[in-house]
Request: fold
Amino acid sequence: MIMEFCKVDREEGVLVVTMNRPEVLNSLHWMANRELELVFDDFNRDPGLHVAIVTGAGDTAFSAGNDMRYDGPEKSWGLPERGFAGLSRRTDIDKPIIAAVNGLAVGGGFELALACDLLIAAEHSTFSLPEPRVGLAALAGGMQRLPRQIGTKNAMGLILTGRKVTAAEGLRMGFVNEIVPRGETLTVARRWADEIIGCSPLAIRASKQAVRAGSKESDLQRAFEVERSCPAVKALMVSDDRAEGRRAFVEKRAPKWASIS
Reply:
């Protein structure tokens, strides 16, 4: 695929996706959203890729959300089926995705970051869902993901005002995993990715499926039952990775995961 609005780099099981429209603070129009949707489709299908990192070009903005100034012949106010960047409304990817937020994460940009499993933020980053200020609503996933991640009261405080919060506030609220100096988000995100790569890919997929399935249940006992029914969990229980992990632990060596292509 020829990329026009993003850059894609493949590095030993890790896919680094960079939104590449720095002239408009990495805001996205329909074509950019669709291009990124195809990128994440490919990531989901590729057995040789185990982790994705998504970031923005430059050190000013992760993404300023929808490109509201775009007025070309292919203008569209909609989004792909799977949301902003083809990811914000997506729930079918069992591989970990890390947001390396390097500045502004506004509107759809914030919703994209919330859709990732981990969020590494540069210390100068800010986050907001300002859609109500321009007569819109955060319908690309933010209004559903944010309350689940930081609680209803904290989330409503952001959703109903459109106010900005800093990376430090995001860390306190719980949607940021780590704050890093300016210019180091990608380096630190790769470090997290390397730690994930050291684990069994099948175990990682099973873990993500189990968390997602259990989070839909209000009853804890029911959540225990549901996680056991996840396809990746069932596969893990009878896998070579499960036996290899124990052998490697006893023999004090690095495991050789059968689920790595």
The chain has a mean pLDDT of 94. The beta strands are 6-11, 14-19, 51-56, 61-63, 97-101, 104-106, 118-122, 126-128, 165-166, 178-180. The longest helix spans residues 30-45.
